[in-house]
Amino acid sequence: xPVERLLPTPEAHDLIDLTRDVADKVLAPRVxxxxxxxxFPDGVFPALGAAGLLSLPYPEEFGGGNQPxxxxxxxxxxxxxxxxxxxxxxxxxxxxxxALAAHGNDEQKNTWLPDMLGGETIGAxxxxxxxxxxxxxxxxxxAQATDGGYRINGSKAWITNGGKADFYTLFARTADTGSKGxxxxxxxxxxxxxxxxxxxxxxxLHAIPTTSAHYDDAFVPAERxxxxxxxxxxxxxxxxxxxxxxxxxxxxxxxxxALDEATTYAKERKAFGKAIIDxxxxxxxxxxxxxxxxxxxxxxxxxxxxxxxxLSYSRxxxxxxxxxxxxxxxVTTDAVQVLxxxxxxxxxxxxxxxxxxxxxxxxxxxxxxxxxVIARSLAS
Length: 380
Hints:
alpha+beta, 11 helices, 51% helix, AcylCoA_DH/ox_N_sf, AcylCo_DH-like_C, oxidoreductase
């Protein structure tokens, strides 16, 4: 059964209906093939873009959907319930547009944002490095000022959409002043000197590449620096607050899909003369799964409503990311258990759900980092 959602407007209900229709027709029929073969789903993102689903939280004047985060995240959840890898890529695209939309000047926004939000391009976010994951201030990829722009040298890691994206929101060091020496750049695909490593061999999210990127004296014009020199890390962290909500929504979609699959199986499978859902021990497992899904959804919607109201939401974003991704891991694991031996096979999707759920506890800030953010907010 579709999730019964409390949405702010009739338009939002229509958007969710559209999302479900597109996801059922475009994503669901292809997910098994591409995840098993680890192949990129050509044509999927143009289809999502044509439906207006790649730019929902951004202003209409630049080609966005002008939707509140409360609605946008529930769209992501619906996508995540059908195909987590694609939903993550959509979330990362939204994250990659944030720096320009929130911190670019008028000329930059007018020049590049319409194409970025137009539905025919997809972006990537390039912050982490092999030695700088949770400690983003330790990054060493360097942008050296030169005539007309910057020369970029160094490597970046863990780039979702790497090698497939049309633009990269890059954070590189412009001064040796620690966290205050990092700047933000918008790098187009095809930039000379930019190359990508072989896609990582991952536990899950097989259809969307995660790669390293290598900058070898790559030139980026000065007008492609977003914000002032040294402003990069605050831009990155403000983007991550919204990105964490995206991952929370995708994780909730994964958990919902696992709950639905487990419930359907438990209604059909019989043991000792009755459906296994009617055995109290299993019924309680499903009840706990349902409670975890509902709790996850409530946390990300609460944070989104705060963001939409212009209130501080950094702590709530960390809470949502922590609660939703831990729930996804627990619920998908329990779904495998409910299905028993069948759950451990590829005949049913719950084993894929379980593999996909694990990464949600790691990227956009590990859940240990989320606990640190929450603890610091309590101490302040």
